[in-house]
Amino acid sequence: MFKVFDPRQLGHAPALELHNGAFVPHVDLPSRAQVIVDRVGPLAPAEDFGLEPIARAHTPDYLAFLESAHRLWQEAGRPGDAIGYTWPVVGRRPLNLNRIDARIGRYSYDAGTPITAGTWETVYWGAQTALTALQPLLDGRERTAFALCRPPGHHAGADYMGGYCYLNSAAIAARAARDAGRRRVAILDVDYHHGNGTQDIFYEDADVFFASIHGDPSTEYPFYWGHADERGAGAGEGANLNLPLPRGTTLSPYMAAVDTALDAIAAFGAELLVVSYGADTYEGDPISHFKIATPEYGAIAARIASLGLPTLVVMEGGYAVDALADNVESFLSGFA
Question: Which of 5, 18, 157, 178 is the most exposed place for a label (fewest CB within 10 A)?
């Protein structure tokens, strides 16, 4: 298995997030990536494919905002990390909003995703990590690759951040695979939380199938996306499959959902698979509520591998840091 990580992804270190009515220490720390690097190495460095493939999944105005937001925050005389506090409830118009407070609200949807001095460099190299890991799948040198991306990306839409996510590395890689000639690409999201950003990016796309297995959004973040009746729209109608599961889900019902997703991906005729892997389905995760044990990740991955597709695994969430390396190692072992 080809594995990629770029140490420049360690530069994003947010201090606080707003959670349940209080500012608390942020859980997406650089140590999440470092413990995985220490366990599953060696990992190849990322190559730089530039901004163009990133701009195939994200809008130019949003990228310009991400690159400049922390500087503008400082110029406004604000200390610490840039974080929003005002959001439009209904609709978003392309207004010319110069104040950084307004711009953060325009391009985000929660107060858990602050922009730090190192955020842009970190997320840029996270996207390059995914693009680098994709290359040997495209040219046939490998059947499986692992992109250790950090922070996660699947909550980031074409023009918004949220859920600790800024650039959607899985979506960027899927779009790059399409641009490289893969006629049909599938994304399977097995993070505990629904990949709303990925869904939004491809919701009207007939050539990228998105399937997500996640905590039921009637009780779980991100609440407003991920319901079973969201099936795609326009040309993409039917190319979106959400499989929400209740709190406390164990391996057996989880595997049934995996089988449903894999059957749909096979019927779609995918030529390449991107897996958004979140280890926050783990039974000991501090912010999630499934009951998957460490050894069971290998079985889940083996079932996914049975599709026989070239597969890119992109790291998403997982916040039980003491068990994170074990969980990632178990999942990757299922592709051996």
Answer: 18
Give the range of the structural domain holding residue 318, as residue numbers without chain letter.
2-14+24-53+123-333
Question: Which pLDDT value is given to residue 89?
Answer: 62
DSSP single-letter state for residue 57? T
Clarify whether 58 is annotated catalytic.
no
222-229 contact pairs (CB < 8 A, 24+):
222/109, 222/155, 222/162, 222/163, 222/193, 222/194, 222/196, 224/196, 225/194, 225/196, 225/199, 225/200, 226/194, 226/196, 226/199
Q: Does 220 fall in a domain? A: yes
108: in domain: no
Kindly state whether residue 250 falls inside one of the protein's structural domains: yes
Could you report the per-residue pLDDT of 173-204, keeping only the tens digit for each?
999 999 999 999 999 999 999 999 999 999 99
Does the residue 105 lie in any domain?
no
Tell me how far CA of residue 39 lies from CA of 30, 42, 150, 310, 327, in angstroms. Answer: 15, 9, 16, 24, 11
Q: What percent of the chain has pLDDT over 90?
A: 91
Q: Looking at 26, 155, 193, 214, which residue is catalytic? A: 155
